Amino acid sequence: MPRTDDDTWDITESVGATALTVAAARAAETDSENPLIRDPFARVFLDEAGQGIWSLYAKPALPDDVDTDVRTMVRAMIDFMAVRTVFFDEFFLAAADAGIQQMVILASGLDARAWRLPWPDGITLYEVDQPKVLEFKAVTLQRHGARPRVNLVNVPVDLRQDWPRALRDAGFDPARPTGWSAEGLLRYLTASAQDSLFERIHELSAVGSRLAANAVGAEALNPQWLARQRDQMRHLRSVATGLVDTDVIDLEELWYPEERTDLSAWLNEHGWEVSAATLGEWLARYGRSDVASDRMPNVFVSARRTRS
């Protein structure tokens, strides 16, 4: 179902299903022979949610009759999520080592950093997401006896609403430096909503704050790339439908292929010191195939606010 301005979702619906797809990729990476990341909670979420398109990525081995192109797409997704997870894990631990004690994960989805990272004492982490998504995560992890390693504060609010007010009401202090993440989020916002998001982050960020985000590469707006992507995802969805006994969500309907403000340039103009690297550079760093950078062009951006 196409997106609307006021749509909401449960964890197995619409954008919520993308969180399960990411968890599936993290679960597959965790179970691999030489994993870049270890997320013991990822498969717990999948077991709780049941089957869906995410099941295609979580399987330890695909059936023999699955064609090479689908296998390549699945492998690319897993590699992408592995290095993306490393990028954000390293960002948060570096921010904590630098003395930042207030962290915010925007559109936290089924991220389990509050539970799995070796946080130092004194960290407060705010998770912002749709109410039903946060509830699913909290109930599932409580049922399995998991406890967060930080002072975790859930902020159940849609990022298209007045989330800064909800964040402050939950105890967030804009006068203190903050570590922010926007992981796997921007493509699911319109271009104008993305601009609003970073304007709000900037307003809430004291000097010394840090930010990490991944942005879709400009090549993803190329008409030929978009047409090829639609064909690939249509084929993958068809294969997934044959493997799981449930309706399979069309993930391509969920994002907005719109021209956007260049995030690095915007941050530089607003007093942030920025570094950026392509997905291809991160894949090469860890010896992974470059196929994912063509299938899912991304730029990883990290920044530190240096002036008001």
From TrEMBL:
GO terms for biological process: methylation. Its EC number is 2.1.1.-. Keywords: Methyltransferase, S-adenosyl-L-methionine, Transferase. One of its GO terms (molecular function) is methyltransferase activity. It comes from the Bacteria. Transmembrane segments: none annotated. PANTHER family: S-ADENOSYL-L-METHIONINE-DEPENDENT METHYLTRANSFERASE YKTD-RELATED (PTHR43619), S-ADENOSYL-L-METHIONINE-DEPENDENT METHYLTRANSFERASES SUPERFAMILY PROTEIN (PTHR43619:SF2). Exhibits S-adenosyl-L-methionine-dependent methyltransferase activity. Belongs to the UPF0677 family. This is S-adenosyl-L-methionine-dependent methyltransferase.
